[in-house]
Design brief:
Mean pLDDT: 76
Number of strands: 8
Largest sheet: 6 strands, antiparallel
Number of domains: 1
Distance between the termini: 12 Å
Low-confidence stretches: 44-76
Order of helices and strands: EHEEEHHEEHHHEHE
Radius of gyration: 14 Å
Strand order of the largest sheet: 5-6-2-7-1-8
Strand content: 15-25%
Shape: globular
Number of helices: 7
Structural class: alpha+beta
Length: about 170
């Protein structure tokens, strides 16, 4: 039986460290996803342009994710560890970047927004809407699906790396 652990991060650096530690601890990166608002600024404050005053995307590690998706280049940082990174237009939010298996779920659930995509991960719709609000505010939502006996370890990794909110579903 599987569980889902969700963490909310205020910075790409925190999310990147958490994803790296999950990988180091044997979690499959195929089961890890990130969702962030394109154009977010470091520290969780959404706005115009990218982190560090750059336009056109958020930075994950050393490369602009929006630029990497557009050019098909190799993604750096946390997004580079995950498969299927892509930019989506979510009604009511705008451009969103998603990396990992959640990207496919969100592309199929664009009309339901982020909350609709998270329902497939066993996350109640009400909590999904709250996570969607976190993305709107410029925070990064990380999701990992794993065996139930590994959920507490994943939650600890998120907390250790600065997640301000961690839940298991």
């Amino acid at each position: 039986m599987e569980g889902t652990v969700v963490g909310v991060f205020k910075s790409e650096g925190q999310a990147e460290k958490a994803v790296g530690e999950l990988k180091d601890r044997g979690f499959r990166t195929d089961d890890v996803s990130l969702i962030a608002r394109e154009g977010r600024q470091e520290g969780g404050r959404g706005g115009e342009g990218g982190a560090g005053g750059r336009e056109g995307g958020i930075r994950m590690g050393r490369q602009d994710v929006g630029e990497g998706v557009a050019t098909g280049g190799v993604l750096g940082g946390a997004a580079g560890l995950l498969a299927g990174a892509g930019a989506l237009a979510i009604p009511g939010i705008g451009p969103v970047l998603a990396a990992g298996p959640i990207a496919a779920a969100l592309s199929g659930a664009v009309t339901g927004g982020i909350a609709g995509g998270l329902v497939d991960y066993g996350i109640p719709a009400e909590r999904g809407r709250q996570y969607e609000d976190e993305v709107k505010r410029g925070n990064i939502v990380a999701v990992v699906r794993c065996k139930r006996d590994k959920t507490e370890e994943a939650a600890q990794i998120f907390r250790r790396n600065g997640a301000v909110e961690v839940e298991t579903h």
